[in-house]
Specification:
49% of the residues are buried. Helix content is 38%, strand content 18%. It is built from eleven helices and eleven strands. The protein has a seven-stranded mixed beta sheet, sandwiched between helices. Strands 7-8 form a two-stranded antiparallel sheet. It has a two-stranded antiparallel ribbon with strand order 10-11.
Length: 349
Protein backbone atom coordinates (compact mmCIF):
# COMPACT_ATOMS: atom_id res chain seq x y z
CA UNK A 1 0.00 0.00 0.00
CA UNK A 2 1.17 3.54 -0.73
CA UNK A 3 -0.13 6.97 0.10
CA UNK A 4 -2.54 8.70 -2.26
CA UNK A 5 -0.71 9.69 -5.47
CA UNK A 6 -2.82 12.85 -5.73
CA UNK A 7 -0.81 14.39 -2.88
CA UNK A 8 1.59 16.84 -4.50
CA UNK A 9 5.13 16.77 -3.07
CA UNK A 10 6.14 19.80 -1.02
CA UNK A 11 9.54 21.48 -1.01
CA UNK A 12 10.82 23.34 2.04
CA UNK A 13 14.22 25.01 1.96
CA UNK A 14 16.57 25.20 4.93
CA UNK A 15 18.15 28.58 4.25
CA UNK A 16 21.71 28.57 5.57
CA UNK A 17 24.39 30.78 3.97
CA UNK A 18 26.41 28.59 1.63
CA UNK A 19 24.77 25.42 2.95
CA UNK A 20 21.11 25.77 1.96
CA UNK A 21 19.34 22.56 1.02
CA UNK A 22 15.86 21.33 0.10
CA UNK A 23 13.57 19.02 2.03
CA UNK A 24 11.17 17.21 -0.33
CA UNK A 25 8.02 15.77 1.29
CA UNK A 26 5.50 13.51 -0.40
CA UNK A 27 4.80 10.10 -1.93
CA UNK A 28 7.50 8.68 -4.17
CA UNK A 29 10.14 11.39 -3.58
CA UNK A 30 12.74 8.67 -2.91
CA UNK A 31 12.80 8.09 -6.67
CA UNK A 32 14.36 11.52 -7.17
CA UNK A 33 17.57 10.35 -5.45
CA UNK A 34 19.55 9.79 -8.70
CA UNK A 35 18.81 13.37 -9.78
CA UNK A 36 19.88 14.74 -6.40
CA UNK A 37 23.10 12.71 -6.50
CA UNK A 38 23.81 13.93 -10.04
CA UNK A 39 23.10 17.49 -8.96
CA UNK A 40 25.88 17.47 -6.36
CA UNK A 41 28.27 15.82 -8.82
CA UNK A 42 28.94 12.66 -6.80
CA UNK A 43 30.64 9.85 -8.69
CA UNK A 44 29.91 7.06 -6.20
CA UNK A 45 27.71 6.53 -3.18
CA UNK A 46 27.73 4.60 0.08
CA UNK A 47 24.12 3.80 0.97
CA UNK A 48 23.50 2.82 4.58
CA UNK A 49 20.03 1.30 4.66
CA UNK A 50 17.79 -0.13 7.34
CA UNK A 51 15.16 -1.04 4.77
CA UNK A 52 14.87 -4.09 2.48
CA UNK A 53 16.27 -3.85 -1.05
CA UNK A 54 12.92 -3.03 -2.65
CA UNK A 55 12.66 0.06 -0.42
CA UNK A 56 16.30 1.14 -0.88
CA UNK A 57 16.51 3.40 -3.94
CA UNK A 58 19.32 3.19 -6.46
CA UNK A 59 21.42 6.38 -6.28
CA UNK A 60 22.17 6.16 -10.01
CA UNK A 61 25.94 5.83 -9.56
CA UNK A 62 28.18 2.90 -8.54
CA UNK A 63 27.37 2.23 -4.92
CA UNK A 64 28.12 0.28 -1.78
CA UNK A 65 25.09 -0.78 0.27
CA UNK A 66 25.72 -1.25 3.99
CA UNK A 67 22.95 -2.78 6.14
CA UNK A 68 22.19 -0.35 8.97
CA UNK A 69 21.89 -1.03 12.67
CA UNK A 70 18.71 0.94 13.27
CA UNK A 71 18.33 1.13 17.05
CA UNK A 72 19.46 3.13 20.08
CA UNK A 73 21.65 0.28 21.30
CA UNK A 74 23.83 0.52 18.20
CA UNK A 75 23.93 4.31 18.02
CA UNK A 76 27.54 4.23 19.15
CA UNK A 77 31.05 5.34 18.30
CA UNK A 78 31.96 1.75 17.44
CA UNK A 79 29.23 1.70 14.76
CA UNK A 80 30.45 5.03 13.37
CA UNK A 81 33.98 3.63 13.24
CA UNK A 82 32.75 0.56 11.37
CA UNK A 83 30.88 2.74 8.87
CA UNK A 84 33.98 4.85 8.22
CA UNK A 85 36.02 1.68 7.71
CA UNK A 86 33.49 0.44 5.16
CA UNK A 87 33.65 3.80 3.38
CA UNK A 88 37.45 3.57 3.26
CA UNK A 89 37.41 -0.01 1.95
CA UNK A 90 35.07 1.15 -0.82
CA UNK A 91 37.42 4.01 -1.62
CA UNK A 92 34.86 6.74 -0.92
CA UNK A 93 36.24 10.24 -1.40
CA UNK A 94 35.11 13.80 -0.76
CA UNK A 95 33.80 13.84 -4.32
CA UNK A 96 31.31 11.12 -3.46
CA UNK A 97 28.21 10.96 -1.25
CA UNK A 98 26.83 9.05 1.70
CA UNK A 99 23.10 8.23 1.74
CA UNK A 100 21.16 7.24 4.85
CA UNK A 101 17.93 5.29 4.50
CA UNK A 102 16.29 4.47 7.81
CA UNK A 103 14.91 5.83 11.04
CA UNK A 104 16.29 8.48 13.35
CA UNK A 105 19.10 6.39 14.80
CA UNK A 106 20.33 5.59 11.29
CA UNK A 107 20.13 9.25 10.32
CA UNK A 108 22.08 10.30 13.43
CA UNK A 109 24.84 7.73 13.16
CA UNK A 110 25.29 7.93 9.38
CA UNK A 111 25.27 11.71 9.54
CA UNK A 112 28.07 11.66 12.11
CA UNK A 113 30.06 9.16 10.06
CA UNK A 114 29.71 11.44 7.01
CA UNK A 115 30.81 14.43 9.09
CA UNK A 116 33.94 12.67 10.33
CA UNK A 117 35.05 10.67 7.29
CA UNK A 118 37.66 12.70 5.36
CA UNK A 119 36.60 15.57 7.66
CA UNK A 120 33.27 15.70 5.88
CA UNK A 121 31.63 14.17 2.80
CA UNK A 122 28.19 15.10 1.43
CA UNK A 123 25.23 13.24 2.91
CA UNK A 124 21.64 12.81 1.72
CA UNK A 125 18.98 11.59 4.15
CA UNK A 126 16.01 9.41 3.24
CA UNK A 127 14.21 9.20 6.59
CA UNK A 128 11.85 6.23 6.67
CA UNK A 129 10.10 6.75 10.02
CA UNK A 130 7.72 9.55 10.91
CA UNK A 131 10.01 10.54 13.78
CA UNK A 132 12.98 10.91 11.46
CA UNK A 133 10.98 12.82 8.83
CA UNK A 134 9.78 15.50 11.25
CA UNK A 135 12.95 15.77 13.32
CA UNK A 136 16.21 13.83 13.00
CA UNK A 137 16.80 14.26 9.26
CA UNK A 138 16.55 18.08 9.22
CA UNK A 139 18.89 20.54 10.86
CA UNK A 140 22.33 18.97 10.65
CA UNK A 141 22.62 17.63 14.19
CA UNK A 142 24.41 14.28 14.20
CA UNK A 143 25.27 12.32 17.32
CA UNK A 144 25.68 8.95 18.99
CA UNK A 145 25.23 7.84 22.59
CA UNK A 146 27.63 7.09 25.40
CA UNK A 147 26.83 4.88 28.40
CA UNK A 148 26.49 8.13 30.36
CA UNK A 149 23.81 9.67 28.15
CA UNK A 150 22.09 10.23 24.81
CA UNK A 151 23.68 12.15 21.94
CA UNK A 152 26.77 13.20 23.93
CA UNK A 153 29.19 12.82 20.99
CA UNK A 154 28.28 14.54 17.75
CA UNK A 155 28.84 17.27 15.20
CA UNK A 156 26.86 19.71 13.09
CA UNK A 157 26.84 18.48 9.50
CA UNK A 158 24.10 19.71 7.20
CA UNK A 159 22.81 17.30 4.52
CA UNK A 160 22.82 18.15 0.83
CA UNK A 161 19.13 17.20 0.63
CA UNK A 162 16.42 15.37 2.56
CA UNK A 163 13.82 13.18 0.84
CA UNK A 164 10.84 12.53 3.13
CA UNK A 165 8.95 9.89 1.18
CA UNK A 166 5.56 9.42 2.84
CA UNK A 167 5.18 6.03 1.15
CA UNK A 168 7.63 4.71 3.76
CA UNK A 169 5.17 5.55 6.52
CA UNK A 170 2.65 3.02 5.20
CA UNK A 171 5.09 0.24 6.12
CA UNK A 172 5.41 1.27 9.78
CA UNK A 173 3.73 -0.63 12.61
CA UNK A 174 1.06 1.44 14.40
CA UNK A 175 3.18 2.11 17.50
CA UNK A 176 6.02 3.50 15.38
CA UNK A 177 3.65 5.87 13.57
CA UNK A 178 2.29 7.08 16.90
CA UNK A 179 5.84 7.43 18.20
CA UNK A 180 6.57 9.96 15.46
CA UNK A 181 3.63 12.08 16.54
CA UNK A 182 5.51 12.95 19.75
CA UNK A 183 7.67 15.47 17.92
CA UNK A 184 4.63 16.87 16.09
CA UNK A 185 2.70 17.31 19.35
CA UNK A 186 5.47 19.35 20.96
CA UNK A 187 5.45 21.70 17.93
CA UNK A 188 2.07 22.96 19.20
CA UNK A 189 3.91 24.76 22.01
CA UNK A 190 6.88 26.18 20.10
CA UNK A 191 5.22 28.10 17.29
CA UNK A 192 3.65 25.68 14.81
CA UNK A 193 0.09 26.31 15.93
CA UNK A 194 -2.57 23.66 16.24
CA UNK A 195 -1.80 20.90 13.73
CA UNK A 196 -4.43 18.49 15.02
CA UNK A 197 -6.86 17.39 12.35
CA UNK A 198 -4.57 18.18 9.42
CA UNK A 199 -3.58 15.41 6.99
CA UNK A 200 -0.35 13.75 8.08
CA UNK A 201 1.71 15.11 5.17
CA UNK A 202 0.64 18.63 6.13
CA UNK A 203 1.62 18.02 9.74
CA UNK A 204 5.02 16.82 8.55
CA UNK A 205 5.45 19.86 6.30
CA UNK A 206 4.46 22.28 9.07
CA UNK A 207 6.85 20.64 11.52
CA UNK A 208 9.71 20.71 9.00
CA UNK A 209 8.98 24.34 8.08
CA UNK A 210 9.12 25.33 11.75
CA UNK A 211 12.38 23.50 12.27
CA UNK A 212 13.87 24.94 9.07
CA UNK A 213 13.10 28.48 10.24
CA UNK A 214 14.63 27.87 13.67
CA UNK A 215 17.74 26.21 12.24
CA UNK A 216 18.23 29.07 9.75
CA UNK A 217 18.16 31.52 12.67
CA UNK A 218 20.42 29.47 14.96
CA UNK A 219 22.31 26.61 13.35
CA UNK A 220 24.47 25.73 16.36
CA UNK A 221 22.18 25.92 19.37
CA UNK A 222 23.32 29.25 20.78
CA UNK A 223 19.81 30.69 21.13
CA UNK A 224 16.42 30.01 19.52
CA UNK A 225 17.28 26.44 18.50
CA UNK A 226 16.88 25.43 22.13
CA UNK A 227 13.13 25.64 21.47
CA UNK A 228 13.33 22.41 19.49
CA UNK A 229 14.27 20.61 22.71
CA UNK A 230 10.81 21.21 24.19
CA UNK A 231 9.93 18.12 26.21
CA UNK A 232 13.32 16.56 25.55
CA UNK A 233 15.08 17.05 28.90
CA UNK A 234 12.79 14.65 30.72
CA UNK A 235 12.22 12.73 27.46
CA UNK A 236 15.87 11.75 27.11
CA UNK A 237 16.03 10.82 30.80
CA UNK A 238 12.99 8.56 30.41
CA UNK A 239 14.55 6.80 27.44
CA UNK A 240 17.66 6.05 29.47
CA UNK A 241 15.75 5.14 32.64
CA UNK A 242 13.61 2.59 30.76
CA UNK A 243 16.56 1.25 28.73
CA UNK A 244 14.77 2.65 25.67
CA UNK A 245 11.63 0.58 26.24
CA UNK A 246 9.91 3.97 26.04
CA UNK A 247 10.59 5.21 22.52
CA UNK A 248 11.85 8.69 21.74
CA UNK A 249 8.58 10.24 20.59
CA UNK A 250 6.70 8.61 23.46
CA UNK A 251 9.25 9.92 25.96
CA UNK A 252 9.12 13.41 24.44
CA UNK A 253 5.32 13.30 24.73
CA UNK A 254 5.53 12.61 28.46
CA UNK A 255 8.28 15.24 28.69
CA UNK A 256 5.98 17.76 27.01
CA UNK A 257 3.23 17.13 29.58
CA UNK A 258 5.83 17.51 32.34
CA UNK A 259 7.13 20.76 30.80
CA UNK A 260 3.62 22.18 30.99
CA UNK A 261 3.24 21.13 34.62
CA UNK A 262 6.67 22.52 35.52
CA UNK A 263 5.92 25.83 33.82
CA UNK A 264 2.69 25.96 35.84
CA UNK A 265 4.52 25.17 39.08
CA UNK A 266 6.91 28.05 38.39
CA UNK A 267 4.03 30.44 37.72
CA UNK A 268 4.97 30.89 34.06
CA UNK A 269 1.59 29.74 32.70
CA UNK A 270 -1.90 29.32 34.09
CA UNK A 271 -3.92 26.16 34.77
CA UNK A 272 -5.70 26.20 31.38
CA UNK A 273 -2.40 26.20 29.48
CA UNK A 274 -1.06 23.43 31.74
CA UNK A 275 -4.13 21.33 30.93
CA UNK A 276 -3.70 22.11 27.22
CA UNK A 277 -0.37 20.26 27.27
CA UNK A 278 -2.06 17.07 28.39
CA UNK A 279 -5.01 17.54 26.04
CA UNK A 280 -2.84 18.05 22.96
CA UNK A 281 -0.50 15.14 23.72
CA UNK A 282 -3.35 12.76 24.55
CA UNK A 283 -5.18 13.87 21.40
CA UNK A 284 -2.39 12.35 19.32
CA UNK A 285 -2.79 9.02 21.14
CA UNK A 286 0.50 9.50 22.97
CA UNK A 287 1.30 8.60 26.60
CA UNK A 288 0.87 11.31 29.24
CA UNK A 289 1.94 9.36 32.35
CA UNK A 290 5.32 8.50 33.82
CA UNK A 291 6.32 4.82 33.78
CA UNK A 292 5.42 3.06 37.02
CA UNK A 293 8.87 1.96 38.10
CA UNK A 294 11.10 4.96 37.40
CA UNK A 295 12.01 6.92 40.50
CA UNK A 296 12.21 10.69 40.83
CA UNK A 297 15.83 10.72 42.03
CA UNK A 298 16.95 8.60 39.09
CA UNK A 299 15.24 10.91 36.60
CA UNK A 300 16.78 14.03 38.16
CA UNK A 301 20.23 12.45 38.05
CA UNK A 302 19.78 11.66 34.36
CA UNK A 303 18.44 15.15 33.60
CA UNK A 304 21.62 16.64 35.08
CA UNK A 305 23.51 14.96 32.21
CA UNK A 306 21.46 16.88 29.63
CA UNK A 307 23.63 18.90 27.22
CA UNK A 308 21.73 22.10 28.06
CA UNK A 309 22.37 21.72 31.79
CA UNK A 310 25.30 24.12 32.16
CA UNK A 311 23.70 25.85 35.17
CA UNK A 312 21.81 23.32 37.24
CA UNK A 313 18.64 21.75 35.88
CA UNK A 314 17.69 23.40 32.60
CA UNK A 315 14.43 23.13 30.63
CA UNK A 316 12.67 24.72 27.68
CA UNK A 317 9.43 25.97 29.19
CA UNK A 318 6.32 27.78 28.08
CA UNK A 319 5.74 31.26 29.45
CA UNK A 320 4.23 34.69 28.84
CA UNK A 321 6.64 35.31 25.94
CA UNK A 322 6.24 31.78 24.60
CA UNK A 323 8.69 28.92 25.04
CA UNK A 324 12.22 29.79 26.16
CA UNK A 325 15.24 28.25 27.87
CA UNK A 326 15.03 28.43 31.67
CA UNK A 327 18.22 27.69 33.56
CA UNK A 328 18.87 26.67 37.16
CA UNK A 329 15.34 25.47 37.89
CA UNK A 330 15.16 24.59 41.62
CA UNK A 331 15.51 20.85 42.13
CA UNK A 332 12.79 20.82 44.79
CA UNK A 333 10.27 22.18 42.25
CA UNK A 334 11.35 19.64 39.64
CA UNK A 335 11.08 16.81 42.19
CA UNK A 336 7.67 17.94 43.42
CA UNK A 337 6.37 18.22 39.86
CA UNK A 338 7.61 14.73 39.03
CA UNK A 339 6.02 13.33 42.18
CA UNK A 340 2.70 14.92 41.22
CA UNK A 341 2.73 13.43 37.72
CA UNK A 342 0.29 10.55 37.11
CA UNK A 343 1.96 7.18 36.62
CA UNK A 344 1.13 4.09 34.66
CA UNK A 345 -0.46 1.35 36.77
CA UNK A 346 2.08 -0.79 38.62
CA UNK A 347 4.55 -0.66 41.44
CA UNK A 348 6.63 2.43 42.17
CA UNK A 349 10.44 2.40 42.13
Amino acid sequence: MTTTPAVAPRRIDVSLPGRAYPVHIGPGVRHSLPGVVAGIGARRAAVVSARPPEWTPDPGVPSLVVPARDGEGDKSLSWVEELCSRFAEFGLSRSDVVVSCGGGTTTDAVGLAAALYHRGVPVIHLPTSLLAQVDASVGGKTAVNLPQGKNLVGAYWQPSAVLCDTDYLETLPPRERTNGLGEIARCHFIGAGDLRGLPLHEQIAASVALKASVVAADERDTGPRHLLNYGHTLGHALERATDFALRHGEAVAVGTVFAGRLAGALGRIGPARVTEHTTVVAGYGLPVRLPADVGTAALIALMRLDKKATDGLTFVLDGPRGAELVRDVPERVVAATLEAMPREPGSRA
